[in-house]
Design goal:
The complex is a heterodimer of chains A (about 250) and B (about 350).
Chain A: E1 4-13, E2 16-26, E3 31-35, H1 42-49, E4 57-62, E5 65-66, H2 72-78, E6 80-82, H3 95-102, H4 104-107, H5 121-133, H6 149-162, E7 167-171, H7 179-192, E8 197-201, H8 205-211, E9 214-219, E10 222-227, H9 229-233, H10 236-240
Chain B: H1 17-32, H2 40-62, H3 71-88, H4 92-114, H5 119-139, H6 141-144, E1 150-151, E2 158-159, E3 164-165, H7 170-193, H8 195-205, H9 207-212, H10 217-243, E4 245-246, H11 253-266, H12 274-292, H13 296-310, H14 314-323
Antiparallel strand pairs in B: 1-4, 2-3
Classes of the chains: A alpha/beta (about 250), B mainly alpha (about 350).
Chain lengths: ~250, ~350
């Protein structure tokens, strides 16, 4: 059984239908890609899968539990984590605090009103592990706003990983990145693929075809093709929509 | 740029040098307040409003929730204290506990309605609820005494079992309130540096991300709203004790606006000490400017406008820049040995 499954998801805003009968399935341990042109409904799909939007119809099942319509915080606590296309960090906080805030160990201490945060060895150790994973060691006490764009992307992913998730949704992780930063990100995701189930929305086809085990193509709010990168290159829908041209 | 979420070098300590200096200033105030041309009662007022402002800034500065109706809880506390003294029994602890609980309950009920809101909707709802309380205080004259309010509220003694202190004098009352201010300052300092406090600050910075990393944002908003209402209730109880009366004006929109102005002018958005500076500045402006001109509030208002336009970080932000004008924008790593 798939770790995460979306069945017949519909999402409409008033009279406009954004997602129509989307069914997706993500196996544990795989890197899954979602691609499609601008306005295809990819981010809306992510918003539905992670609880930001309630689907108009359909169901979402994570690890055998129906999570349809559950709020994002509850879905997050079950082990579903995500990053955002637009940078979504705690900008007044330094790098390590961004990570600490997302640690389940820290979340469990939510009601503590007198203990200290930044002298706690358990929290610091866990945060340093995540910073090591995303390559931000040495910059932990910098304000997150002072990081380079590429490093802020890495921190965005770090915050998602700090929650110790079973599945990570990354919304256009290469958005705004240069060639070198994208290369770094490829290395990072290759490093993470053994530990997490990853789902990525991506515009950069080379990036996606290089990393993904399975890819779903969304167009006009529907899944028009699904398969491995090799299968998709020969898919007539993909070729017709010119999405596979770079593959 | 200074921000409230800077990690203090001493974030793990209970009593920092600043807190020690603040306590010293507070406790020595009766000895120098007269010689500098002021009077003892202003110390009582400042101390009461510091309690109100510290609690309010947990909500306003730290969580980023703009309540414009917080005077209501000051008033609820004042009435609860007065009603307790007049109808239950003359007791300091009983009265203050009643003030805290009544304001806490009122805050919790309002928070249930507003904690799922943010931005302008949150702000407008707090004003609306604030006006409801004020209107209730004016109209329910059989409880509140209507527009006249509750008069001749006794000032109870401080009874510690083995000994008791007469609080009828302003100096004795001041020492009681100053002691409470010191305790509350230490507790709020610890709270804002604790996991709970850092989560509040995370919610201020990015409510959406906070929920996507698993926090029940509405619950934190509810708790901090209720807590700040309890602070306001305590301040209100002390206020009615000091004034020996409680009246609708205590919970008017005017008072709600004053606390916002004090916190903003003082720099509560960027510094823990901002609300305290704001309260002190307001009362000094009221008495010093007020001695010069009847239109002192106009000048204070103009100062507020100038502060918002040219120095939105407030007095605390201004002082922070004076202290370290050439420092680059780097953060302080907590000391390794802590």
């Amino acid at each position: 059984m798939a770790l995460f499954e979306a069945r017949n998801i519909h999402k409409r805003f008033g009279s406009s239908v954004v997602l129509e009968d989307i069914s997706l399935s993500f196996e544990e341990g795989q890197v899954n890609g979602i691609m499609g042109p601008n306005g295809a409904g990819k981010t809306t799909c992510f918003h539905c899968l992670t609880g930001h939007y309630k689907p108009s119809r359909g169901s979402i099942v994570f690890d055998g539990t129906d999570i349809t319509g559950k709020p994002p915080q509850r879905i997050a606590r079950m082990g579903v984590s995500r990053s955002f296309q637009m940078m979504n960090l705690f900008d007044d906080a330094c790098v390590i605090e961004n990570i600490i805030l997302a640690l389940p160990e820290f979340r469990r201490r939510y009601a503590q009103v007198t203990s200290s945060v930044f002298n706690d060895k358990v929290l610091l150790t866990q945060a340093y592990e995540v910073l090591d994973q995303v390559g931000l060691l040495g910059q932990e006490w910098q304000p997150s706003l002072s990081l380079s764009y590429g490093n802020r992307r890495a921190l965005e992913i770090g915050v998602a990983l700090a929650a110790n998730p079973r599945i990570v949704f990354l919304d256009e992780p290469t958005s705004g990145l240069g060639v070198e930063a994208t290369r770094q990100l490829v290395k990072l995701i290759q490093k993470l693929r053994d530990r997490y189930t990853i789902v990525m929305i991506e515009h950069d086809m080379r990036f996606l075809f290089e990393l993904a085990d399975q890819i779903s193509v969304i167009h006009w709010g529907q899944v028009i093709a699904q398969g491995t990168p090799d299968e998709l290159q020969s898919n007539k829908w993909v070729q017709r929509s010119a999405l596979g041209a770079v593959a | 740029m200074v921000t409230l979420s800077d990690i203090s070098r001493r974030s793990g300590q209970w009593i920092t040098p600043q807190i020690a200096v603040f306590a010293l200033v507070l406790l020595s105030l009766p000895f120098w307040i007269g010689p500098i041309g002021l009077y003892q009662y202003i110390g009582v007022e400042i101390a009461i409003w510091i309690i109100f402002a510290l609690g309010f800034n947990l909500l306003f500065g730290y969580t980023g929730l703009h309540s414009f109706g917080h005077g209501a809880y000051l008033g609820v506390g004042a009435y609860a204290f007065g009603l307790f003294q007049l109808h239950v029994g003359v007791s300091l602890f009983g009265g203050l506990l009643a003030a805290i609980l009544a304001a806490g309950v009122a805050g919790a009920v309002v928070a249930s309605f507003v904690s799922h809101r943010r931005g302008i909707y949150f702000a407008l709802m707090t004003i609306a609820f604030g006006q409801l309380f004020w209107f209730g205080a004016v109209k329910m004259h059989w409880i509140t005494g209507g527009e006249d309010g509750l008069l001749n509220i006794p000032r109870p003694d401080l009874n510690l079992g083995v000994t008791s202190f007469d609080l009828s004098g302003n100096t004795a009352l001041y020492y009681l309130i100053a002691t409470l201010v010191i305790v509350i300052t230490i507790l709020t300092w610890r709270a804002v540096n604790s996991p709970f406090g850092r989560i509040l600050q995370a919610i201020r910075q990015n409510e959406v991300r906070a929920s996507f990393i698993g926090y029940e944002v509405w619950w934190f908003k509810w708790v901090v709203f209720t807590l700040s209402a309890m602070f306001a209730g305590l301040a209100g109880g002390l206020f009615s004790m000091a004034q020996e009366s409680a009246y609708p004006d205590v919970m008017s929109l005017h008072q709600s606006g004053l606390i916002v102005m004090m916190v903003l002018v003082g720099g509560g958005l960027v510094n823990f000490w901002g609300p305290i500076l704001g309260v002190v500045l307001y009362f000094i402006a009221r008495d010093v400017l007020g001695a010069i001109t009847e239109t002192w509030l106009l000048w204070y208002g103009l100062m507020f406008v100038a502060m918002v336009m040219f120095k939105p970080e407030g007095l605390a932000g201004f002082l922070a820049e004076l202290k370290r004008p050439s420092e680059p924008e780097t953060w302080t790593k907590p000391a390794e040995e802590q």
